[in-house]
Amino acid sequence: MAEPQPAAIQEGAAEPHAPTGSAEDRKAAAALSSLDAPTQDDDAAGKKNVDSKALGEAMKGLSVKEHAGDEKKKVVKIEASDVSLLASELEIPKQKATDLLRASDGNVLQAISSFITP
Amino acid sequence: MPQPLPAKEGSLFRQLVKFYESKQHKKGIKAADQILKKHPNHGDTQAMKALILNSQGHGEEAFALCKLALKNDMKSHVCWHVYGLLWRSVKNYEEAVKAYKFALRIEPDSQNILRDLALLQCQIRDFDGYIESRKKILNARSQLRQNWTGLAIAYHLKGNYKEAIHILTTYEETLKQPPSKADLEHSEAVLYKNTIIAESGDVEGALTHLEGVMKANLDKTAVLELKAKYLQQLDRTEEAAKVYGALLDRNSDYRAYYDGLEKALGLDKSDAASIEKLTELYEGYASKNERSDAPRRIPLDFLKGDAFKAAADQYLRQMLNKGVPSTFPNIKALYADPDKKATIEELVLGYASEKAVANGSAEGETVPASRFEDSVLYFLAQHYTYVRSRNLEKAMEYIERLIEKDPKSVDYNQIKARIWKNYGDTQKAADTINHARELDLKDRYINTKCAKYQLRNNENDKALDTMSKFTRNEAVGGPLGDLHDMQCMWFLLEDGEAYLRRGNVALALKRFTSIADIFEVWQEDQFDFHSFSLRKGQIRAYIDMVRWEDHLRDHPFFTRAALSAVKLYLKLYDNPDIAQGRNEELDRLDPSERKKALKKLQREQEKAKKAEADRKAAAQAKATPKADDSDQKKEDTDPKGEKLLQTKEPLEVAMRFLTPLLELSPRNIEGQDLGFQVYLRREKPLLALKCILDTKDLDPEHPSVHKNAVLFRHHLNNLKEALPESVAEAIKQSFTSPPADADIAALKAANDDYIKEHSESPSHLQAAYDVRQQLDAASKPQNETDLQNVLQLDGIGFDQASAGIKLLYEWKSDANVVEAYREAAAKKFPQATRFLKK
């Protein structure tokens, strides 16, 4: 038997609402919290005007296009020591330091000065 | 390995899930325990129990249990999913993403996990990942329109306009018949597509697309606004003017439409040639709509000379006759032009001397004559309070005349308080506005103003008491707790700044940190909207929100809190003793007295602590257990901010404020100055230099450029360790003034030149004296004398005078020197409370 899926584990709904007094308040709070929950007419609304055949075709068209746009990255030799120097001196993530160096063709001085000059 | 449950426990488990969803935590725990009694190592149940524990606020327990669950059942997607949710709840998004991905590997088709992962990726702006997840979601359920829109959003945010448009178009093409006219989701999606087309730079295409859909679209205003914008961008000005005309017929008080119309007609307010046509244009709109303000007020911006006088006369008379209270605030922007300021002053003074009888309104209505007279006096009182036209004595005279006529007016008393404030007399200002507040206890505006004035007068407790008249006082933490819940940031800021002035560093820090926390909450708040907006189909507003979140912390409140907090952390770093409750004033006492004072301080602290503990014990004894424990909010464990103050690494903590400040408000010079100071102390010369260069770029004449440049050179000259080669080289290239070979003598000489050059500017002089002090401690006596002489300059305001006192504290000057300075300042600003002898 497959385990039942915890169906409505809702992101963002985990925070409890403010303490509520009367039964009416609680009802209102419940209504509020269910605002974000998927309702059944989501599905129904989706179906009424849907041509499943056309959708099927459309989905195919979608997957064909995916392989088209691969760009080639510029090949630049970047020293690991330069990356860590920049990351620590400029307090930026290593990824950003690498990008910075790549943009300056691996030249540390140029990378630094492009970063610090306004 | 999966752990199947027998039928009875299986249904119990489903119940457990239901209980969690409906937030019946106690019942949920009970059900979980029931299952665990028979199957103590059932991973899924343990995970669910952990989830419930977490939402009850037992975070650590939850983590321990969830780890146990994972050990028992490594192959369960429920366990991994819960593990991810736990990480998410402590805002460790990287770990959460990892856990979700594990869960997905086990159960690739789970829509819930996929959705949670997607939302998280959007939250951390991992758009590549977001696109992938959105594609999977769409593959699983392509019949739902929102899944198509969701993928388009992902591409759009990534900047891939072409794909985004393609996705939306593909979906539209599958529709059998055009959606009904009332289909809001469709209408919004179409406009959303239109904005993407425009953003991709294809204005022509956007216009064509818009014209195809505009008839059926529900958001008429947006359609017209977009059309006008596109036409204007395409230089089809005549058509654009027509559309702006249509928009103005819908709303003739919206300035942006007038601006658009002017541009479309090729008119320019600053160009004398178009003034005539502009006048005609606005007269046309003014006559079309008698009650409309904009077409009457806007001409005052561009008219000059006699034409201005006539128009201003007409405008002012109408407003003052009606007794519009906001007349002055509406006019004061014109004071930037000295001629207009003079003209308005002349006009209104003329009204004041007119006989009241002469002012029957044009329509022949019977207006009480005194209304015009009162409005004129009220206008004049505000006129002489305003900074560009300040004459506080006259202002006081006018406001006194009004108060004599109507002593019960809240407005008049409020202006009186403002006059005292501008005198610098915070005490009288607070008293006066409190009197105004008492005239109308139900007026929340004046109540709020009153609290602010009390804070400016350093009366924190009184201000909180005033605020409590309008807060929910049964909230956890009382009025202050409610102000936190309501994110009442102005109060927290002013409260913090008042504590800072009083020398209560801990509480000040506490308040500034609260502000930073609130911004974190704002960032967190967007989470719900990643799914909510999609479901409701309000995509354009959602995109605006996502982009706004990216520069959230350029908000003025954050900037103010950050500036104060960073200053505080700098002080804390330079003088760690502050954390022990000592302050500069104590340092000035002689040793035996200081010892006594310190002991007294300690005794007081202990006493306060004991009282606090008693209060808590009493509160605990009184508190009855609440119905649902999950609703209880945690009490603040550090209400006084003492733990915050004890930080071992003040500069590292300061980065929480400084980084967003420099990144998002780079045009704030004070921020750059503080950035320099922090980076210099943290030995990050390149970043310190960046702050100097940025300041120079913003305002080359700003005193902090000179100060920081000299200090930076001085710092470089005295390095203990050599900098890495490339760093030194980069500094050599970008930092040339003062020159690299400038030794201490040359720096001193440069500074002396600077003093001569700026002998009339208080802020430049103060900066230069500070430099001289830091270069050469022996020059202190001269600096102190010179600093006091700055007070005699004409241009000095009391904020600059206060800055002098702060400098003296920084230099650790003698108590009698500070006292002499204070006395001199008090002589210069006799009304200012802050220079009074304590």
TrEMBL record, chain A:
Pfam family example for this protein? UBA_HYPK
Q: CDD domains attached here?
A: UBA_HYPK
Q: Which residues form the Nascent polypeptide-associated complex subunit alpha-like UBA domain?
A: 76-116
> In which domain of life is the source organism classified?
Eukaryota
Q: Which biological process annotations from GO are given for this protein?
A: negative regulation of apoptotic process; protein stabilization
Q: Where is this region: Disordered?
A: 1-51
What InterPro entries does its record include? Huntingtin-int_K (IPR052617), HYPK_UBA (IPR038922), NAC-like_UBA (IPR044034)
| Name this protein carries in UniProt | Nascent polypeptide-associated complex subunit alpha-like UBA domain-containing protein
Origin organism is Massarina eburnea CBS 473.64
From TrEMBL, chain B:
Q: Where is this region: Disordered?
A: 583-646
Q: Where are the TPR repeats?
A: 77-110
GO CC aspect terms: NatA complex
Listed A to Z, the keywords are:
Repeat, TPR repeat
Q: Which SUPFAM superfamilies match?
A: TPR-like (SSF48452)
Which InterPro entries did the record assign? Answer: NatA_aux_su, TPR-3, TPR-like_helical_dom_sf, TPR_rpt
| PROSITE patterns on file | TPR
Q: Where is the signal peptide?
A: none
Going by the entry's taxonomy, the superkingdom of the source organism is recorded as Eukaryota
SMART domains for the chain: TPR
Q: Where is the composition biased (Basic and acidic residues)?
A: 583-617, 625-646
Extract the Pfam families matched here: NatA_aux_su, TPR_3
Q: Which PANTHER family does the entry mention? A: N(ALPHA)-ACETYLTRANSFERASE 15_16, ISOFORM A, N-TERMINAL ACETYLTRANSFERASE-RELATED
Q: What is this protein called?
A: N-alpha-acetyltransferas-like protein 15
Organism, by scientific name, is Massarina eburnea CBS 473.64
Its lineage opens with: Eukaryota, Fungi, Dikarya, Ascomycota, Pezizomycotina
